[in-house]
Design a protein that fits this description.
The structure is a homodimer. By secondary structure, chain A is of the alpha/beta class. Chain A has 2 domains: 4-69, Beta Barrel (Ribosomal Protein L25, Chain P); 75-232, Alpha/beta knot (3-Layer(aba) Sandwich), CATH 3.40.1280. Chain A is built from 6 helices and 11 strands. In chain A, the strands form 2 sheets. The first copy, chain A, has a 6-stranded parallel beta sheet, sandwiched between helices. In chain A, helix 2 (86-98) packs parallel to helix 3 (124-138) and helix 2 packs parallel to helix 6. Chains A and B meet through helix 6 of A and helix 6 of B.
């Protein structure tokens, strides 16, 4: 937790905030803050700033907050991800958020197990929790947008082309290496653990996506997604 | 499991192999192989090839193996990693292996919790298991070398300079961006979750390491390591 994130409704009209959950615990037990000390704070959906600790005790922490700086810029990047198994989804949501991804689309493909769509990892609160962990890690305040696309064909035809002027699809079978340090707005599509099936890849390419590879080694989805995002230079 | 890895002592003099563990299970239950079908095999420390299934039943699988192709090249890359907490270590060992890292040094630094050195994740069999998962993922046969360096000062002075002609250290406080697509032999140093302390960074730089950053966002060690390796172009 590299920033204490605060929601607008938690800020009183005089800028004071009272915390009594894991954030208070973190200030007391991990950061060992005492009265009068400053702490990095951020308003979810708003700016970053400084909180001065006015009181700290076992039953909670009170802070006076000043939000004075904009959050780090997001990268104009959409990740389209075949829905992975729940533990991988959880870790990837946090990692993609910490890397500054602006928009995440979770996609049904032939090799996505249908039962994954019923996982508690897809509940609004569970997704919100992972996104918040990612923001807290990277000292950011702006949540990425998360969407679901359960109809592959319709998504590729109607929505994919509008996501970004340049669309990549990671595919270990192609020879074209994934570019590095791309600054233009991008969408990147990642297949599931067993890969996209050939007709899916064809439809993506037909809709304007460029197939690119990270090399001939077959990588886990988690490795490929994080690696590609850093390679593309998503971190500001 | 994208390749069935076999140890030399398991191969009979006529090239036949009998499996009755999770590999046999995988062939039967996941790949649903039947008699006469080919399967990708690899000899740990040796070559890749094809196994023809001669018999497959609940009590085991027998294969006739031919090892005909060299494994994918490793990248001349050493990762020096402040010992992370055990679950992260396990995942990273497998991921670094799948990315073709040649050598891994696990390092003690000021902010590494000493108790991590007593974790079962550091047992020889536990490390071997993760390395094997990484090889199975990436269709490789060559295990990376894993070493421990529990004395930071001595390691940096005596061993680090000999690891590679170019040494990088990941540090979010520097301004110099991490390069992409480096082909020369490299060593890359990653600090622990709380970062290297300034005197440690100074000693590393004094020993010839270049501090580089992935950007101002603070990333988890797992995200930074995987991202940096893919960015450097470690995948063959």
């Amino acid at each position: 937790m590299n920033v204490i994130l605060i929601h607008e409704h938690e800020v009183a009209s005089d800028g004071r905030v009272r915390l009594d959950d894991r954030r208070a615990e973190h200030l007391r037990q991990v950061l060992r803050k005492t009265s009068g000390m400053p702490v990095r704070v951020g308003l979810v959906g708003g700016w970053l700033g400084t909180g001065i600790i006015e009181g700290i005790a076992a039953d909670g922490v009170s802070l006076r907050c000043d939000f004075t700086e904009p959050p780090p810029p997001k990268r104009a990047l959409t990740v389209v991800l075949a829905l992975p198994r729940p533990p991988v989804l959880r870790r990837l949501l946090a990692q993609m958020t910490s890397l500054g991804v602006e928009r995440i689309v979770l996609l049904q493909t032939e090799r996505v197990e249908k039962s994954y769509w019923d996982s508690p990892a897809l509940a609004t609160e569970s997704i919100a929790e992972q996104l918040q962990l990612g923001l807290e890690q990277a000292v950011d305040t702006m949540l990425p947008q998360v969407e679901f696309a359960r109809r592959f064909g319709r998504f590729v035809q109607d929505e994919l082309p509008g996501l970004a002027p340049r669309i990549l699809v990671a595919d270990p079978r192609t020879m074209k290496p994934c570019p590095a340090n791309v600054t233009e707005p991008l969408a990147v599509v990642f297949g599931p653990e067993g890969g996209l099936i050939p007709p899916e890849l064809e439809r993506l390419v037909g809709a304007g996506a460029e197939a690119v590879t990270l090399g001939s080694r077959i990588l886990r989805v988690e490795t490929a997604v994080v690696g590609t995002l850093v390679r593309l230079g998503t971190c500001s």
